[in-house]
Amino acid sequence: MVVFDKGRAVFKHGPEDFIVEEVQLDGKISEISSLMSAFENAVVDFGNLNVNDRRDFIMFDLEKINIDHLSAMSELSEKIKKHPHEIGYGGSKDKVAWTCQRISVFNPDMEKIKVFSHPGIILKNFRWGKHKIKIGDLKGNRFRVTLRNLDGAALKVLSRIRNTEYIPNLFGMQRFGSVRNNNFQIGKLILKGKYKEAIFAYLTGYGDKEGKEVRDAKRKLKEEKNIISAKGYFPKELHMEHRIIEYLGNNKNYFLGAIGMIGEKVLLIMCQSVQSRIFNEIIERAMERGVASNTDSLVIPGYDVGNSKNKFAEIEEEILKENDLTWEDFRNSDIPFLSLKGAERKAFLRVRDLEIVTEEDEIFGPAKKIVMSFVLDSGSYATTFLEYFFELE
Known about the structure:
Blueprint: E1 7-11, E2 18-23, E3 57-65, H1 69-79, E4 87-89, E5 98-106, H2 110-114, E6 121-129, E7 140-148, H3 152-156, H4 158-162, E8 166-168, H5 183-191, H6 195-204, H7 212-224, H8 239-250, H9 255-260, H10 264-288, E9 297-300, H11 313-322, E10 343-346, E11 348-350, E12 352-360, E13 368-377, H12 382-389, E14 390-392
Parallel strand pairs: 1-14, 2-5
Antiparallel strand pairs: 1-7, 2-7, 3-5, 3-6, 4-5, 7-13, 8-11, 9-10, 12-13
């Protein structure tokens, strides 16, 4: 794998620095408003839609700013009085961002939609439709990203970016834990059935950005190895850690049950991070050996993928062995929802319609900023592209 010096840049200083507009299957783009002031006192306008000429579904663009996907869908569901499963979308969008995507609602109450209001959401471009929008029902996304406070290396890397059409489709660092960066370690222990070690890793892991009191408490537990006594000195802000310690105090040595206290969503992310790390290592090994091409797809490991016959089979087995894993480790009879199936993922993502403009940075002057516009296919992530060239802060 080619290694080069990355530049440093400030990423997502504000939501307007990360703009995402869906490209629909027919090529139409769900465009954001031209000004952020559009969110002020926004009202729902059905335009030329004939409200009485009903179909099964109403389709519209949902434009949002600085609100996460699940919260936006929850607000919409609650205010228009529809169950979440009656609302369809092609993909989720980031929180610290300004985004626009296509939404479908089954059997809508148009009066409730008409009075919808939220300071960070705009509903617009209505039409009737016959089908629900499902995950993956989009061609891709158009991005406009502003990277700020660039160092010298960041400016030097621009020519490399302009001459790069394909990059390895690696999973980004957010998959591995943004605070403690130990999702892989914990996920692997869970997949191996080492629940006591997984709980201990969860309770003692910390990141560079956590406070001194937290770091000192977790170091103490790591040295003393007495989980129950940690209740007396763990900071109150560590809510999940206290729940686990309380559980183990009432259910001595039942570490499988303690794992359940972490919550399904977090546990799934941790275990999926193992799949992601293995996939990344397979790509990197394949590139080192020169056997990966722009048209290849690679295996995301799972319990149903063992003994694959593709040209990467030898590399897959090597990487699993080096990480002390087997295909069968991805099947979990103790915690069934953590049994992870395999899948295919493109080895490389293609960057289309790339434009880069360098400007004075009005926030971090006299440094420079760059504004990058590009299109990625559905299932590809802007952070994968950006992290290939930059250390993002």
